[in-house]
Amino acid sequence: MDTGLIAGSVDSLEDTRKMADELKISFPLAYGLNAKEISSKTGCFYEGEKGYLQPSGFVINPDGKIMNAVYATMAMGRLGAKDCIGLISYLRKT
After folding, report:
1. Contact (CB, 8 A) for 43 and 71
2. CB of 30 within 8 A of CB of 9?
3. Mean pLDDT of 58-86
4. I need a surface site. Which of 36, 71, 88, 94 has the fewest CB within 10 A?
5. What string of H, E and C letters represents the secondary structure of 18-43?
């Protein structure tokens, strides 16, 4: 079974491409997302005064069920690669 990664951003296509180039990101990046709408659909923290989302991460199984979610209210509190790999390995065994 394949495992994939995708990231989303409220940034413009130009800014998203610039970030991807600077960070050498090779996985798909969605861009131009509506922060308020994403917040209402996912429960992630929306900073209304500044109009941006705080980091949120999800591990979703092939059936679309959220297996793990991490929400932050500031720059700390993100899903790490090792945590995701460990959880996915565990879920595949069970």
Report:
1. yes
2. yes
3. 85
4. 94
5. HHHHHHCCCCCEECCCCHHHHHHHHC
